[in-house]
Amino acid sequence: MAEKDIALKVAHVSKNFRLPHEQANSIKTSIVSVFKPKSRNVEIQHVLRDVSFEVEKGEFFGILGRNGGGKSTLLKIISEIYKPTKGSVKHEGKLVPFIELGVGFNPELTGRENIYLNGALLGFSRKEIDERYDDIVAFAELEDFMDQKLKNYSSGMQVRLAFSLAIRAEGDILVLDEVLAVGDSNFQRKCNDYFEKIKHEKKTVILVTHSMEAVERYCSRAMLIDEGKIVKIGDPVEVAQMYSDLNFKKKETKTTSSGKHHGDIEIDSFSVIDNKPSDTINANTHTKLTVRSVIDSKISLEKAVFGVIIYNSAGMPLFATNTNLTKTPIEVKKGKRMTVDIEVDNIFSNGEYVISSSLKSIDGTETYFARKSEKTFVVSGRRHEFAIVNPAYEINVQ
Length: 398
Description:
This protein is an alpha/beta fold and 398 residues long. It has 9 helices and 19 strands. It is globular and about 80 Å long. The protein starts with 5 loop residues before the first strand and ends in an 18-residue tail after the last strand. 30% of the residues are buried. Mean pLDDT is 79; it is low at 250-262.
């Protein structure tokens, strides 16, 4: 990787915290503690251990990890809030962290006043805030509340305002910590549109999240960190699966009666039926595609959700469905091979496509298996090649 292509370089970073065991709440205890051996008063907590990785310019890089695994500390070191105990962090260009939305908001000021106050903290001049003000308010959907004090806002309203203001900060590297979970479903759609936009613009983004779906949807690469160490860096689907496995194994150490583990379930293969040997599908003869998945299981699941996503070569999801959406939850039986066929209209334009599939619990909290195909299939025969999809249509002129 050429040096000029690197936006962020984290080299051998370690971070320790000193945790005192005694509280000095009087002059006497404070004086006595000075003469006690330091090892008796303080415990050293090793949060990060020799972490090294690089992020290329234009890359959407995801970081997954369980609570307490070290990812938030790493993010604060990258954002220059913490200094590493050892190692170094270098970045090229302006880095803008979205770590704690709304920090610096004053509840006694109005929404309007908080925009100007926090805008100044983000480095905007008053003129720049004037130019952005209407867009900030419209995105937050708070046009009728800007002259009310912030303390009268709901928590959701405050988060919407904070996020809408934060995304106006222009930077070369964006550092995002769990910002995908803000607001209601309608506002989250806006957030998703924003992330699609910055992904399309090839901005350098570092996303820390618990959402495997977000990692698979947006990230070009991902990293799993646990107990302060890097477990894996690579394909987002594989990293998300390892994160799911890690959570599942931790649950098993507490509940040994179930005996479930992800190694007991495999999606043996998935493919598009009637492919030619070259995996090229002529759109003129194949108006429908059937994605077939074969599931082998050594355990039984009373209810499970099976889903499929089709991506284009740029990694953009074009089609997604699951058995929960169609209200047909499936039952997986021990030792019985199951075949799931999903038929979809072939409206895909000429190009290469990739399939991923997953098997999850009915409530979506556990992923038993997830995998993206290594092999693409190709659609050909379309007249127009510049669009992503090619649905049937008609034009009426009056």
